[in-house]
Amino acid sequence: MNLAWSWNRDAHELFERIDPVLWAKTRDDPVRLLQDVDPARLEAAAADPGFVALYDEVHDGLSHLSADKGTWFRQTYPGSDSGPVAYFCAEFAVHDSIPIYSGGLGILAGDHLKSASDMGIPMVGVGLMYTRGYFDQHFDAEGWQINEDEEFDPARMPLSRLHDPDGSGLATVSIEGRDVALGAWEMMVGRTRLLLLDSDLAVNDEADRPLTNRLYESGEELRLKQEIILGIGGVRVLQALGVTPACWHANEGHAALMMMERARQAIEAGADFDGAVAGVRAHSVFTTHTPVPAGHDNFSFAQVESILGPFWELMGIDSRRFMDLGLADETGPDRFHMTAVAIRLARFVNGVSEKHGAVTRAIWGSMWGGRESDDVPIGAVTNGVHTWTWMSRPVQNLLDEQLGEWWTHRVEKSDVWDKVLAMPADEVWRVRQEMKRRAFRFLVEQARDRWQGVWGKARHLVASGPLLDPEVLTLGFARRFATYKRADLLVREEERLLDLITDDRRPVQIIFSGKAHPADDHGKRILQRIYKLSHDPRSAGRVAFVQDYEMHVAKRLFGAVDVWLNLPRVPREASGTSGMKAALNFVPQFGTMDGWWAEGYTGKNGWAIPLAPDLDDPDAWDWSHTFDLLENDVVPLFYERTSAGIPMGWVDMMKQSLWIAGRDFTTGRMLREYATKYYVPAMSGVEGDDPPA
Ligand SMILES: *Cc1c(COP(=O)(O)O)cnc(C)c1O
Question: Whose CA is nearest to atom 3 of ligand 1?
Fold first, then answer.
């Protein structure tokens, strides 16, 4: 039931050995494996001494979780005994078997909890239980994305229900004047507890039961209701469970009402309004993720009034004063802006890369009265990824051999990573080629399954990649099909792309993957264009589209591709994390100078498109530089081989990628920064405040 197995190599091997076919079918889900496996297989495993030895090893390895002795946090802050950090987020991606996420924000939040567990940082996560979190991606004959809802059964998941489904819930919030009772599910992520709030209780009004069903459903009203449940409900459920956090972290503005509720409670307990706000600020951290103000949640006065009113009366203030807390220049006096609320109520505010920190200071600096943007007290903590989730087993095994056994315990030391550069090129290349062949076999098997099961249409089969060749330079473009991520940059002029991929001597393949938001027709049109190209005979089977981009698909793709493409329109990508995951698997990134790449690119660990002189219309510039670089640099470097067939220059690039990512772009580094700069000071409350207007 503890998700710690999901980032434990030996545990994966253990479950796989019970029944490798079923293990693959469940997409690495031990709960389903153990429910569905033939008991005879368990008996055979129990009689196998090798299996039992591994079982004991895994068991011993995970039993350390019950104590935090020897962890980074205990060693660094030995005297600390305050309550945990409460980490609020609208989505969490811990493992695909609990599909309650849509993309990057959720994966970051899941990785955050895992690293907090590894490092012994006391933390409790708070999110929502979306029982219909995902949609399955299908395509019609015209390549138009069709969404099929998937509903899941919590009884088959590593979740514990903390409430009685027929009872009155653990806590209540008021929505449109109706009481909405909330239950909670618990997921254990190593040492970290994650609470998922659920409004689907029998006592609730029929209209309120489905509030937490779906993630990012369109419609502002529903969103505001979900944010009341997450923010206000989250605080109350923690209290009902006897959890007393010392520091409160809102990851993105969705959870801003958590701060409002704490202010309300302080006022109820006797504080005046200013004192309550100061008290909330001292213990609060807010991380923003979106670089354009319009991309943040904001609601009209009328909506706030009818859904949340009269919350302000409970705070002893009038509605104008309440709305002023959400005032933002861009949205004007009648809108309540969640990012503005969180900035006003959190002492520590940060963006998610150096560049995004600067963009955020420029956007919100006016709250500090026209200060120079360098003096605006908004910082940056660059995102990272969880090493043990995203570095594949073959790479970890190779590092075991090359860096010495203890490297896994010393990942925070840069000298461990320095050794990556000295690894023998032929070994690195051999392991990567093996990963690539395996990933291609996975793609073919998946295509075969769907061909037999659902499609029966030749073009769907071709689109899914059975004609790909593991010897050929393979580019990967996998992400949400949001407009600013620009998958269409590659097909801007199809002829030039087709020349590149069908070259006789040095061909190139591209694997695409990603979903469009169900309400995003523009994204769906881009997707359709790519999908059609993938079965267009002119592309000769060298363009493939892999359906259902999810964590386990992402992991396969890092094995399959040689270059990770990341082409967001600058400065729209706050950080981006998939390129970091690729790099942890020896895959260099090719990208625009945005988000993490603006600080991660060294000139030796991949390729960067120089900044366009006109940032208002960069598409033509970015497109031509992309193709110039691919044709003149990327392709020649990949195909330049020694007599033994090893591309020495390329392998150097691969090692440089892993070196930089392992050292600087992991959630281990990220959590050390959050803890040192924000959590520990916020746990004791901070003095010397510098509040915005
Ligand atoms: C990492 C990841 C993302 C986010 O990637 P970006 O680079 O931020 O676009 C989205 N979906 C999945 C499945 C991922 O693994």
Answer: 104
**Total of domains in the chain:** 3
User: Does the predicted TM-score (pTM) go above 0.85?
Assistant: yes
Q: What is the pLDDT of residue 350?
A: 98
What number does the ligand 1 atom closest to the CA of 578 have?
7
Query: Of 50, 66, 82, which one is at a domain's C-terminal end?
Result: 66
User: Which of 41, 66, 91 is where one domain is finished?
Assistant: 66
In a domain, 693, yes or no: no
Identity of the residue numbered 587: V
* CA atoms of 112 and 352, how far apart (whole Å): 13
Output the pLDDT for position 69. Answer: 81
Task: Kindly report the number of other CB atoms within 10 A of residue 663's CB atom.
Answer: 18
Tens-digit pLDDT profile for residues 222-271: 999 999 999 999 999 999 999 999 999 999 999 999 999 999 999 999 99
Cα–Cα dist 287/292, whole Å: 14
Q: How many CB atoms lie within 10 A of CB 37?
A: 18
Distance 405 CA to ligand 1 centre (A): 30
Same domain flag for 168 and 301: yes
b or e along 392-423 (b: 16 or more beta carbons within 10 Å of the residue's beta carbon)? Answer: bebbeebbeeebeeebeeebeeeebbeebeeb
Q: For 192-326, list the strands marked E by DSSP.
A: 192-198, 247-251, 284-287, 298-300
Q: In this predicted structure, what is the pLDDT of residue 517?
A: 87
Instruction: Report how far apart, in Å, the C-alpha atoms of 624 and of each of 489, 497, 502, 591 are.
Output: 10, 11, 19, 13
Mutate to test the pocket of ligand 1, among 479, 481, 512 (most ligand atoms within 8 A of CB): 479
What is the span of the domain harbouring residue 40?
3-66
Q: Does residue 95 share a domain with residue 7?
A: no
Tell whether 689 is covered by a domain: no
What's the angle, vertex CA 463, arms to CA 462 and CA 465, rounded to 5? 75
Same domain, 154 and 289: yes
DSSP-assigned letter for residue 78? T
Asked if the bond preceding 377 is cis, omega within 30° of 0, the reply is no
Using CA positions, which residue lies closest to atom 5 of ligand 1? 578
Task: Say what the pLDDT of residue 134 is.
Answer: 64
Residue spans of alpha helices (H) in 584-647 = 597-600, 619-629, 635-639
Q: Whose CA is nearest to atom 8 of ligand 1?
A: 576
Tokens 């979903």 locate to 515
Helix, strand or coil for residue 608? strand
Same domain, yes or no: 340 and 436: no
Ligand 1 center to 481 CA (angstroms): 11
Kindly state whether residues 136 and 243 are assigned to the same domain.
Answer: yes
Whether the link from the prior residue into 613 is cis, omega within 30° of 0, is: no
Whether residue 306 is found in the same domain as residue 429: no
577 lines ligand 1 (CB under 6 A): yes
260 and 307 both lie in a single domain: yes
What spatial distance separates the first Cα and last Cα of the chain, rounded to whole Å? Answer: 47
Q: Do the domain assignments include residue 545? A: yes
CATH no. for residue 345?
Answer: 3.40.50.2000
Q: How far is the CA of 411 from the centre of ligand 1 (A)?
A: 23
CA 237 – CA 199 distance, rounded (Å):
12
**Is the C-beta atom of 107 inside 6 A of ligand 1?**
yes
Report whether residue 478 contacts ligand 1, using a CB cutoff of 6 Å.
no
Contact 291, 571 (CB under 8 A): yes
* Residue 598 tokens, joined: 């603006």
Do residues 372 and 343 make contact, with C-beta atoms less than 8 angstroms apart? no
Tokens of 629: 């670089």
Asked if the structure places residue 692 within a domain, the reply is: no
Residues 404-418 have pLDDT tens digits of: 878 998 998 888 999
User: What one-character DSSP code corresponds to residue 543?
Assistant: E
Same domain, 280 and 421: no
Q: Which residues in the chain show pLDDT less than 70?
A: 133-134, 294-295, 455-456
